[in-house]
Prior knowledge:
Layout lengths: L10 H12 L19 H21 L5 H12 L13 H10 L6 H4 L7 H19 L5 E6 L5 H9 L4 H4 E8 L2 H14 L4 E5 L15 E7 L8 H11 E12 L23 H12 L8 H9 E11 L5 E10 L6 H10 L24 H12 L22 H4 L13 H8 L6 E5 L4 H7 L7 E5 L3 H16 L2 H8 L7 H9 L5 H9 L14 H16 L3 H9 L3 H16 L2 H8 L2 H8 L3 H8 L4 H15 L7 H8 L13 H7 L8 E4 L3 H6 L6 E7 L12 H13 E11 L7 H6 L2 E8 L14 E7 L21
Parallel strand pairs: 1-2, 1-4, 2-3, 4-5, 8-9, 8-11, 9-10, 11-12
Antiparallel strand pairs: 5-7, 6-7, 12-14, 13-14
Helix pairs in contact: 6-7, 6-20, 10-12, 13-14, 16-17, 18-21, 22-26, 23-24
Amino acid sequence: MTDIMKGMLPLPKLLAFKHAITKPFNNNGFAIPLPMATESGSLAIRIPLILPLALLVFIVLCSIPATKPYMKFAYNCFIKPHAKDVEGGVMMGQQASLEGFYKGQADVYDLTRGRLLRGRETMLRLVSGEVLAKRVASHSSEKKVWIDVGGGTGWNIEQMSKHLSMPITQFFDRIYLVDFSPSLCAIARERFDSLGFTNVEVVCADAAQWTDTSVPDGSVELITFSYSLSMIPPYLSVIEKANRLLSADGLIALADFYTGTSSSLPYTHPSRSTPGHHVSWLARTFWRLWFEADNVHLEPGRRAYLEHVFGTVKVLNGRNRGLGGIPYWVWVGCKRERGYGNIGRVDEIATESPYLRPKGLVEHDASSTTAIVHTKAYDAAIVNLAAGLPLPSFYYQSHLWRIPYEQEKEKHTQFDTYIYAFTWEDPREDLNVLKVREDDVIVCITSGGDNALAYALGAKKPKRIHCVDLNPCQNHLVELKLAAFTVCGYEEFWRLFGEGWHVDFRGLLLKRLAPHLSAPALEFWVRNAGSFAKVGGLYDSGHSGVAIKAARWLLRIFGLGGAVREMCQTKTLEEQRRVWKERIRPVLLSGWVNKVLYANPVFLWKALGVPINQWKMILAEQTMFEYVANTFDPVIESTLLRDDNYFYLLCLTGRFTKECHPHYLDEESHEKLGQPGALDMFRLHTDYIGDVLRTLTPGTVTKAVLMDHADWFEEGGDRAEIRGELSVLRRAMKVGGEVLFRSAAMQPWYVEEYERAGFRCRPVEVRSKGRCIDRTNMYASTWLAVLEDKEENAIPSLRLGVGMCEDR
Length: 808
């Protein structure tokens, strides 16, 4: 019922077990004569001598003030027999067991639990952030009720008071700490008296039986379980009771030990693919047996039932590495029904439904000729509801930026991080070519999100921006940027994405950013919080960070650190060219670097995201050395790194500067996108771009920015993949819609496929030796394709075959 240290069986139990095993084989108590023992039996004699020696060490440690609390804890946990009843049977069963365990250590409980009960602080930060964000969004100052089930000494309530924006006595009308141990409740009362928390009531009672007429059903804003659900025998009734008490917009949160497997859950269960959810057979068997000795139950049914009854808002799985890898989880939930209203809404905004309106899905006119399309997420949600299963956590997001996706699919799990921490393509050229208007619906590759943010900040704000990426981590990165726009001031935002670091990123993440992130994005950033641990850390992360760090490492090895700083700080192109030609170019464009890096397809893929088909396209027109030289040389010749070329400035220095950075990092841009509702245009899809296009309502897309996406297709064969994708692209676009794409080839082979699909293509820029076509100059050509023909009969060979864009 309360936070307890369970991790080792009490010593008497261990000794009794050992005695039972060894007794048949010897007559010397715990002395075991092993085969290698001497005739004098010295080995058998030494073993029992360990016991008095250990006792002596224990006594010595108990006399040292600094270790005395921990020795007291160890005695009560591992040596002292647990009582079955107390004071002549006044307390029996569960309460007697708890009191017998805690009475002798209640005064040192908080001091000795910090390292064991991992996740408590994380839970409190998440909950405080969610509650604060909810009240801000609703513009409500109404004080409500919090019930802390198994709150023990009141540590949770005191810590929560440190995370709120006002005194806890003003934030909650009433707080109930419900615990079954009289000794811990006594400590809690003393704590609250000293703190002056007059709105806290300590209730020493069984949580399953406790009632209070002043707490009617549906009136509680917050219910928390801190390492207590695993100790409640009637957990089913307690979970049901919590569901009755929780208000329609309330939250329930938990931190606890657990064991479980992904295979034990239905495929549509929201926790199935949560990283770290699966516990190996050996670990889960060991920890369940270990904890059950002290009536702490880690069977997966408790977690499964809690997640079945409530909707999952956030969930994190962890391992306490300092104490043998004990599995624990942190979870925030809400009333399950809260997500039902989002099913139709998410489907509308993800498909550009012609019936889109602020609230729900309107009735479809049967006489209408407009096709109705649904996302795979909508179909999965309907299946869940029909089967009585909970909805995925996506339906309980604060914002509907992130479109639900099937996390467990191998096409997503193959990615453990993002490839690009920033976008290589130059959005200035995109905006010059596309001329974005207010009624534009844009589909673009997500990448680092810098390009999509640039479109949102154009002279005219587009109606919608659909960002698409198969790698979920790229969308996690964009979600982080959108959340930061929502809650961070400009200077803090600049530190995150201008300098690539934050002094307390984890704290910022859990309390302020988390309410604005989807559950998968939050889990990813908790796991990768170290990316912001140092200046430039963000841009040294991801697979592209490998290439960036390798280049800087190489330059430092050759003593060129000063030359790099000089080139990045010089105010004239003449000086920049001189430093490049005389000092840096001979290293970066040396023959051996070319062989080790640029001509190595493994490095190009792992570090730069260059697929094998694109590599072949380059080699069909020139050598890799020529391609790299034709990339770098014109950039240095024509663009000043210090003031205008933030792409290469970032690569060489690891950070942006206030003089040179992407447009979204301007203070004016932050003010614009930080306004309420300014980011509602974004939709983040995690899937193949063909599958996303297939679920967009026909004729709704006006612009598509596909980067070098088509370079990934294979040129040979029947070209079914590229033709299938172009068919759904043509179907989703309006006549006159524009597609901007780039290629590593000067004359990409698939231009003819675009033209067969009804697009008129023209090259916007084609790179030649010594000529820079944009600030990155990374591609050999940029193309614009305009849709001229949407008649299906005009191009029968391009009709989408069954399953053409289904999951592969």
